[in-house]
Amino acid sequence: MAGPPRSRDTVSGFLDFASRRNKKFGVRVVGVKEGIAYPALLPSSCQDRTNLISSRFSLRAQLSQPWTTQSRTYMARHRRDFIKWTRGPGKLLKEPRPDQTNYLETKDSKGNMLKRPFPLNPEFKSEAVLDDKAREMIWEEVMRKGKTIKQVSAELGVDITRVAAIVRLKEVEKDWISKGKKLATPYCKAILSMVPTKSFKSAEQQNVPFEPINELHIHASTMKQIFWPTSESRHFTRADAAKAFHKDMLPADERVPHPELLQMEKSLLEGKSVWEAKAEFMDAAEKSERNAAERQMRRAMAEDSATRKFNTERFEFRFKEFNSEDVGRDGRRKKAVGWKYGMPSYDRMKGAIKIPTKVPQIGWS
Amino acid sequence: MRGKRLHALKRPKLRQSWNKYNLYNFWRQRDPKIGLKDDETFFQQKWRAKGLLRSYHGEHVRERDWERMFSRRLLSVANMDARYMAEWDGSEQAAGRGSGQDKRPNWNAPDVKPMTLTPYMNMAFAPLERRLDVAVFRALFASSARQARGMCVHGHVKVNGKVTPHPTYKLNPGDMISVNPDIVMFATGRPKGKAYVEPTPSGTASAAKNKKLRELYERGVCYACRKPGHLAAHCPGAGASEQELSVAEAESDATVSAQQAAAEQDPDTTDAPEAPVEDMKPTREAIQSLMSQAKLVLAAEAPTLKVKQKRDLRSFIKQAKPLLSRAGRPSATPSDIASELTKMVSELNLVDISNDTQEAAAQEAASSSETREPPKSIDDLTTDERKALERLIREEEENPIDPSKPYATPWRPRSYMAPFAFIPKYLEVNQNVCSAVYLRHPVARVGRAEVPTPYGYRINQLAFNWYLRRR
């Protein structure tokens, strides 16, 4: 407690005034009796250690003395401001608005009122999520009507991975319902009424796409600026550009999530009918999905045939063939097994917890 | 991690939390204006910027761990228009001097639109969004990143169906996280307040009263007038007897304490002292007993009560809760509370039409035979009433009053939650099963970045530069 007693701790405005006046003369107010301030005779360093009237710890002692008035209860300015806020602007933020977002308000450079979760970050917006009806519809399309994920993605304008995730999560939900497990329905309702949501009319009708579906990942090799001299007469296409960036790089036309969509647009430009182009797209999407499934199956089978399994009561031991000589050019190949000279192994370090880097989606039994 | 003040008011820091103090800090924050004046060196600017952001992003993650996680490779995507790609093969981009045919600028244009940039710098803390605990928080399953961490550690979180007690687990695209719904509802729901506490067998006066009321109910005695043969809902003097008695008690207490306060006040003092703390215990107990009575009536006599009566009772309980909490505040006076309570009780019309005074009943019976009698079974209800009843039953089934739950029931979202409620695009959440799929790593697009971060491009850029050093 350095400096003169502060007004919120002292009893009256008079005392506050007196203390401010006496500051000039190095005299401090230590007591008050019926509005009369007594100057302190102690040096200020001693006063700081004694229980001054300004100290909130002396409050209780004061209350018992009949010749003083009650002092106000101590409350820091910030806390007072906070309480004021909870009664003013904070009151509007306490409860969710029915079926509406309730974000903080801010102004943009033109003075327009905006609502954002982070008022100082214009680059982050709270974007809509698909509501329960839309999720149910996507599940119906895939599981009941048997459409491929790519088809549903293109029809509704929902990202391929999102369609797959929605179906996967819905399957869990259906499983819970069939098992009679209780869903967190009140929680779901509350959240979906707080965040912006998007719904679809029906799969047959034309819907506004939910998000861009044909987004290309910016490959690190394409981030560099390169000087690539070619002749002026050369027809330099996207495929050539990809080769210029890296010899193994595929052109953007093949790297996008929906190359079939590109083909459909090309067919339309060639003058094919919409119906025909769409049928072609449906076929191509189905074929690519089947191919992907086959590829995955083949990989799993190859893995399975390369592993010998021994089932005991408690564990399943899996053995694979490894060549200990196969350590690469410098002997430090990542896939090499066993101890390698110069490579630290933290396997047995004290306190090291083995945190898995991946949890397989299938295969846990 | 322990002993750190997370939500400070004096030197505020923004946190990954739905706490009300944190919301206040978000609300009052102003642009820190780093690097706008030349009073700071570049080092100082970077230091301050990284401090501001690190207090939000993974404040529970040690600096060394975060530094190891940091990646200078920032992910982004470009939207490829299928139509444009079908029409053009890319050679138009190579025309001219190699970066596309030059277009003549329109010098007469009234205003030139500024280029929208891709905020790569906002992705500085993207690697942290991969952490399991942060993803649980982002999916709105926990009210803070620390709480999410606790959920992981205590084994409430599964990744691809396997319990993963490692909050540091880095999610891979396609990973599904599932949290126990009860834990989620506990974390995001209102806490069990005093109003919700079930009466304990021993101790408080209200508990004893409740026990007595239950006994009365079991013996088939009305709790309002203590006469057997009918229940409180049909009691002719229900409003007048006990309920008002307790309110009157509270009022009389209030007047007495007010008189005492007047006597104690010293007229000679220069400054008016604060009102002495009044004993609110009887008032609180009166409210509590009224609430428990209402609850008992609601639970025991649900079939006999009408829909509107039940609704009235529920709204009475709902109104009584804030009143009870207000009665606990130092500024409360018994008279205010009592007058409000009286008003509420008078509004609560539980007396059945058929059980009104006998004269009225006789008159009714004599005058008009077409007056509808109170329904005796569900078949007597009108279609609207039946629908309303069905809706009520459905709501009750979905969101029941269950004292065994660790949160306040019926479940409601916690206060000050809505301003924080957003779900980033890289997660697909199914709230019904409290599960989410981590679709991909967060990315930057033209004009938008997916990492939820409290500050804009400039401050993130400075922080990014801080972590770039010696890399």
Automatic annotation (TrEMBL), chain A:
Superkingdom of source: Eukaryota
GO biological process, one term: mitochondrial translation
InterPro entries reported for this sequence: Ribosomal_mS45
Gene Ontology CC terms, in alphabetical order: mitochondrial small ribosomal subunit
GO molecular function per UniProt: structural constituent of ribosome
Pfam families per the UniProt record, alphabetical: Bot1p
Protein name stated in the entry: Eukaryotic mitochondrial regulator protein-domain-containing protein
Source organism of this protein record: Pseudomassariella vexata
UniProtKB/TrEMBL annotation, chain B:
Family annotation (Pfam families): S4
Domain of life: Eukaryota
Region spans: Disordered: 91-111, 244-279, 358-383
Gene Ontology MF: a single term: rRNA binding
Gene3D superfamilies associated with the record: RNA-binding S4 domain, Zinc finger, CCHC-type
Keywords: Metal-binding, Ribonucleoprotein, Ribosomal protein, RNA-binding, rRNA-binding, Zinc, Zinc-finger
Protein name: Putative 30S ribosomal subunit S4
